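Recall the central idea of this unit: under ordinary conditions, the amino acid sequence of a chain determines the structure it adopts. In this exercise we apply that idea directly, starting from the sequence alone.
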Amino acid sequence: MIRHLRVALACLSLIFATATLAQDFPPPISPFVNDFADLLSDEDEAALTSRLKLLRDDAGVEMTLVTILRRADYGKSDSIESFATGLVNNWGIGDASRNDGILVLVAREDREMRIELGTGYDGTWNRAALLVIEDYFLPSFRADNYARGILTGMDQTIASIARRFIDGDQAETADDEDNSLVIFAAVIGLIALLIARRRLSDWFTGFRACPSCGRRGLRASREVTREATEEEIGQGLRTVNCAYCEYSDHSSYTITQKSSDDSSFGGGSSSGGGASGRW
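Accordingly, the structure predicted from this sequence is:
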């Protein structure tokens, strides 16, 4: 009897431990852009949403961007790889039959990102994802140009992975990398020019002078307080904190009502394919 009781208590302990360590994924704002870290302007977010919606309407591929400050805000996770795989499966990104969904995850404070691919992509596409990360996302991220890195990187992910896959083409190989390097060099040159123009640097970095201490260390984040539905708009809370003083500002924002064809993902899954990068 005592032995059975010990077994039962051990099982209960395991259950409670699992619940404690469970990942607390954020609910999606939309199937296209979920900018929880507030890295994009409203104009950039609208433009990217249009491109991702066109991809879904034209090719049937569900691809979404998620930006967060840090993984620790959503419970315990071993790595960005496990976090991204869990998020794809939790949200169901991609078509359920083809499993061709793509998640681009950026964790700004962790300084790491991931392109997570659905189970429909074989291992050859991991190399293509890595090339996109190294050549298009990371150079801008290392210069704190998150908006530019996201926009150029998302465009290249669409072209090099989503479109090629749905068209039946092979993944980009090492032989194709020379062409990527030419474009990469052009992007680097443009970035260097923009960085040299000091008056534009603040716009690209997204950092503004703190109204309290005057230092450039503001950090913005967004939290959904009421999800949008097909019947009513949603609401969110935007928080701006200073890294150098106790300044904090809160403002509310609205989330557009969902249309019937934009309300959810297709039930896709991932088994861990893709690539990661750090800066």
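The helical segments are 2-21, 42-59, 80-91, 124-142, 146-166, 177-196, 198-205.
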